[in-house]
Amino acid sequence: MDDSKNAVPRSRDSDEERLIPGWNVAADTQIVALGVLVVFLVLAGTFLWPRIFGGDSPTDLSTSARNPAAVTNELSGNPTIIPPVVTTVTEPTQSTDVLDPDLSPDVAAAVSTFDGVNGSANGTVAILAGFVGTTAESQQAAAAAAAVTGITSVDNRLVVLEESVRQAAEEANVGEATVIMDGTNATLRGVVSNELEAQTALLAAGAVEGITPPVTNELRILQPEVDQAVSALEVVTDGEFVVESDGSTLPVGRIATLTGKVSSEEAKAAAAATAAAIPGVTAVTNLIEVVGPTDVEITTDLNELFDLNPIQFRSGSDVILDESLPTLDQAVAILTGATGDIRLEVQGYTDTSGGTEANLRLSERRAAAVRQYLVEGGVNDASLTSKGFGETTEFGPELADNRRVRFALL
Predict the structure, then answer these.
(1) Domains contained in the chain, number
(2) Which end of the chain is more exposed for a tag (fewer CB within 10 A), N or C?
(3) Has residue 70 got a pLDDT over 60?
(4) CA triple 96-98-104, angle to 5 deg
(5) pTM over 0.70
(6) Domain containing 192: what range?
(7) How many CA atoms lie within 13 A of 162 on its CB side?
């Protein structure tokens, strides 16, 4: 039997007649759907891809692959010129920059001989900081730094101490201030009035930043000079001589103030003139009091008077000759002019002619005679005593040299 006759006809919608098995759509319908899908994908690739991913669409890529120079848009038919894509591969490069060398050690070494100077560098600029004594040292340090290989300029920040120390000294009343610098060590010269001013000036100079203490003291102090010069006159008793500065004047004034006692106006004037003659003293305030001669001065004056004009007596007698009376009158004037309570001993001496005992008694009578004349002339009786020494003292080779009257302060 022929099985073909009994076969059942298949439906057009059977799987064999479908393009995509399992999709319950007729084959012609599937073809239409697939065409629509293809068109959609092409449009999506053309218009949406660049907006979403920022690059060429797959369509463009495939087209450009066929003709990179000129491609005809298959959808619109318009020619679109797409430049060829050139891919550049950048090779990593190695930097050829060379770092500048650090010149700080070289600069520091170049200025190491200058005490108080620190050297460094910022690139090719040398930097100097610290302290130097003088402007010349600052310039020398800068020149040493500039000589370093690679240095193009020098930033000199050094502080010059010389002027700072001088200013500090002048503010402390140092006149003619001179500062001698050895590195950061200072020596101070100039004129000051007294020891207190000297110490003040040294402290002020030593306090300047950068100075290595202590400051060497070569100041000239006026007060000891005035004291020594006026005292050497030996005319002022109970003297005190002070030198002070007058900062109200420029240059600073140096005023010597003198106090004490003298026996005469002449002595007072001499003391002032001596003080004023000392270099640096600009004025003298003379407060010395004239009180008359001192006991020592009176005694010296009387003996000088009697040595110049010895008192003459009648031979072997205590009678005073008339030629000696003017000398005794001068002695009266000296003694009555004394303001103090002087006490003197009138002493008589003889030569060696005659007996020793006789000469002793004669000397006593002659001393008493002179005392009596002075008292009668107005000298205070209580201020004078008399005594004879005979031939015990030899004043000269001649006999006449030893016949004399002298005074001794009690």
Answers:
(1) 5
(2) N
(3) no
(4) 175
(5) no
(6) 168-205+213-221
(7) 13
